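Replying to the earlier thread about multi-chain prediction with a worked example.

Input:
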Amino acid sequence: MFKFSSLAREQFLSRGLAGLAAALLVVLLFGAANLLRWPTALMEALGYLAVMAALASFAALRQWLRRLPMATATALGLLLALTLAAQFARHAALFPFTRWAMYTEPSARPEVKVLTYRLHFADGSQQEVVWPGAFPVPLKTTDTGFRLAVLLEKQARHADAANRARLAAALKVVGQRYNHWHPDRPAQRLEAWQTCVPLGQGKNSPNVQKLLVADVALVQD
Amino acid sequence: MSRLFKIELPHQLATAHTLALARLWVCGLWLFVLGQDFAFHAELPRELFQPRGLLTLVPSSAWNLILTTAGLHTLHALCLAGVVCVALGLDWRRLVFSIALLLLTLFSGIPRVYTNMFHHAELTLLLVSVVLLCSPCYDAWTLLPGRRRSIARSAYGATLVAMAAVVLVPYSLVAVVRFTHGGLEMIFSEEMRYLFAQRALQGLPEGWQLGLALSQHAELNTLFQWGFLGVTLLELAAPLALVLPIVRRGWLAAMVLFHLSTWLGMGIIFTENLLLYPLLLLDHSAWQWRPKMERRNGLFGYRLVKTYQKAAVPSLHG
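Result:
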């Protein structure tokens, strides 16, 4: 009679999990589940399950887990659980665990929106700059100045009076940063403008709109 | 074929010194992250500051102290001091490491809260540091001699694999979200062309126009689309790099190229992550920190040791 030894059970489990993971990944890749109109969140959860099942199917990884010191294994389990939880949590509700979802939503954007800063100098001249072009900071997307530009671009157009005041205060800081890096020629006033460049063929005239003015004399650092 | 897809975890020969090297490497990356202008956040309007997650546990009165120029200078200095102490092993029962990680969480969180942009940049480094905190990372290269517990040598390599898992698994998650939310329809759209144009116009220094030039050639769109699909599949397969050397090497090479291309085309580069990959995915433990006798025996000595290692722990090699 066939005896289901522990080794056979282990192999059965490994291959079963690997098969399940492979099937789910095929479903995900080819969008077959979309035909069944499954909710996206369920699809996403199944995808995560597939990834975890694929990992668990490797005996070498299970062996490795047993070799981890208890404290390290606990930390790893907690970190992975919170990373997974953050995928479903409200925006940054579990910070420092955040949702990994870069370039995942279809945009169907007909135009490119660009925020530009218009600097007004004491001699009456003007200069248009984009962040971080005017700022000799390392080329890093993590730079707060760049993130402020994105915030202004997203919120300034539809902000109410209170929000506009906050954003104007943020714009003032951008101006102060500019003066910090250009002490030889500080700006006096700063305006935020949005330029919309159509991406479609034959529609190449950009639409320019003033979003916000920091109507204050900028202080030189 | 079976040789090509053989299962082998990295860092099999890791020692206490290998993990100490990882500690120094991670601290070096933190010093890189900390080398930025930080105190100017005090000038930003406080109304923009709405804490999220762990930061909501900090009382409002404490934020009033922290979000001043002096407070942010102090936080920055304490983070620097903490990272240097961890690097040198000047710690007592991991108290300095724990406090440093809490302070680094504040340091990473403040710019994100002000701008409501919670991207992952150095957060991966933070999670890797948490694994390091809970590991025997002080067993070598410390100024203060710690209490060394008897620990299996395999624990050092296992810890490095755990650090790699924390880095690799989220890549797989983002690929799942991309397939389930956007699907192939999104990947084969004009998304990448749009992103190149957007980033070239918005976020890059003047004269850095490669992305814009690329986005203006509609015929390159097909290349972008297939590249996007390739990178997404690589992201989905990221955890396999833990067990398959061929995926490990391929993933590392592709991701370095990918980071360089997004830097050149879009100005996006997460240097901290890029520098974490070689530490966690290259099996430097095999040639860098092997015992004296093996070194004396040269490459053949190393091969012998590796064969012995395979014989000793056959299950780890599939």
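Residues 52 and 142 of chain A are 30 Å apart (CA to CA).

Feel free to reuse this layout for your own posts.
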